[in-house]
From TrEMBL:
Keyword Signal found: yes
Matching NCBIfam families: TroA_like
One GO-annotated biological process of the protein: cellular response to iron ion
Keyword Signal belongs to the record: yes
Species of the source: Desulfocurvibacter africanus PCS
UniProt keyword list: Signal
Domain Fe/B12 periplasmic-binding span(s) in chain numbering: 27-277
Pfam families: Peripla_BP_2 (PF01497)
Superkingdom of origin: Bacteria
PANTHER family to which the protein is assigned, alphabetical: MOLYBDATE-BINDING PROTEIN MOLA (PTHR30535:SF34), VITAMIN B12-BINDING PROTEIN (PTHR30535)
Protein name: ABC-type Fe3+-hydroxamate transport system, periplasmic component
Lineage: Bacteria, Pseudomonadati, Thermodesulfobacteriota, Desulfovibrionia, Desulfovibrionales
Length: 288
């Protein structure tokens, strides 16, 4: 007799692991903030039972217990919450070590690789399956795709400026071509000036001066907590971006954490790079 088909939700994650649940997940622990934001964007935030130390969106996330960091969660705290699903973003070895530790306790874990909108949508679809919410996942994906399409139309045919994205300073760290940041820059009508095919690229200031970007983005957040403005850095004053004033301080949570709010970063950056394509509403009041 052939074995009975699995009745509950089943997916293959981005490590090729088969994730099987007896029933749709009800107690979810996201070990990466963007994955928790996906669940919240689907209208299922009440199924999240924990957060990492940096999670702060939506506001109700702050009411959940913090269980440590993306790479080093507190296993005792997590197990005490009795999750039936853990979500993790692939990346450094430490993050995958936490995955193995969770699996060793018999808890299903789904790991995702997200470095562009296509992989974001694929992750959303599978998270929707695991939560028994395929329609909610499709609807949120469609909303994001519509917003991206509007930006695509607005920036069609533009001259794309060379953009540098600062991840950390000092010990300069930049966003490389294989990052969600690079995808955001491209969709916003720019071109990442850093050509290396990595997510993060270490650069000397001399190399940066040679690249001479037309636009300079500085992220602010846990990875770059108090960056001085580039105009105040002696070696940066010769950069075309600094000389022209095309410097933008941005929120790390929007740009460097792949999730449903990545489209907001695209919209914000597109309006900065191409303000003529995104006219601001008139502030004039109607005369009476």
């Amino acid at each position: 007799m052939a074995p009975a088909a699995w009745a509950g939700p089943v997916i293959l994650d981005d490590l090729g692991q088969r994730v099987e649940l007896a029933t749709p997940a009800r107690r979810v622990v996201p070990l990466y903030s963007g994955l928790g934001e996906i669940v919240s964007a689907m209208g299922l935030g009440d199924r999240l039972v924990a957060r990492t130390n940096v999670d702060n969106w939506p506001a109700e996330a702050l009411a959940r217990p913090a269980i440590g960091t993306h790479m080093r969660p507190n296993m005792e705290l997590m197990l005490g919450l009795k999750p039936d699903l853990v979500l993790q973003l692939a990346g450094r070895d430490a993050a995958l070590q936490s995955v193995e530790a969770v699996r060793n306790h018999g808890i299903p874990v789904a790991v995702f690789v997200i470095d562009d909108f296509a992989s974001l949508f694929a992750a959303m679809e599978r998270i929707g399956i695991l939560l028994g919410a395929k329609d909610a996942a499709r609807q949120e994906t469609a909303r994001i795709q519509a917003r991206l399409a509007a930006v695509d139309k607005a920036v069609e045919g533009v001259q794309r400026p060379a953009v540098f994205f600062e991840v950390r300073y000092p010990n300069l760290l930049a966003a490389g071509k294989d990052s969600m940041v690079s995808e955001i820059i491209r969709r916003a009508g720019g071109e990442n000036v850093v050509a290396q095919g990595k997510k993060l690229v270490r650069l000397s200031e001399e190399v940066l001066v040679g690249l001479n970007p037309e636009v300079y983005l500085v992220q602010q957040g846990p990875m770059n907590p108090a960056p001085p403005h580039p105009s105040g850095r002696s070696h940066f004053r010769t950069l075309a971006a600094v000389r022209s004033g095309r410097v933008l301080m941005v929120d790390e949570a929007l740009y460097s954490r792949p999730g449903p709010r990545s489209v907001q970063a695209v919209e914000e950056l597109a309006s900065f790079l191409h303000p003529d394509r995104f006219p601001k509403p008139s502030s004039n009041k109607d005369s009476k």
